[in-house]
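[Q] Does anyone have a clean structure-token version of this?
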Amino acid sequence: MLVIVVENVPPRLQGRLGVYLIEARAGVYVGDVSRRVREMLWVQVNIYCQNGNAVMIWSTNTESGFDFLTAGVNRRMPVDMDGLKLVAFTPCDNSQPAQKSSVVE
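[A] Here you go.
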């Protein structure tokens, strides 16, 4: 199972995701694809994300049963805690833009 959630991305990226996945809600894409297709889609997300942000979540054999990656500017930052991936929120500071996050496998 693969889920990709995008916000504020260009229509070109939405179209590319729509070829391989079903858009269950606006910006929420769901499907069951191979690892190779998942990695190709993530490359496309990183190339075309521009000022938007995205998260990709997929089923895997880990303690939590899933793994995820993020791209773009977002207050939610993935944090690895003893092999378990959690999400930390950065403080909302109006004087500085949010940090760009990306976790590499």
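[Q] Thanks! Anything notable?
[A] The helical segments are 11-20, 35-48.
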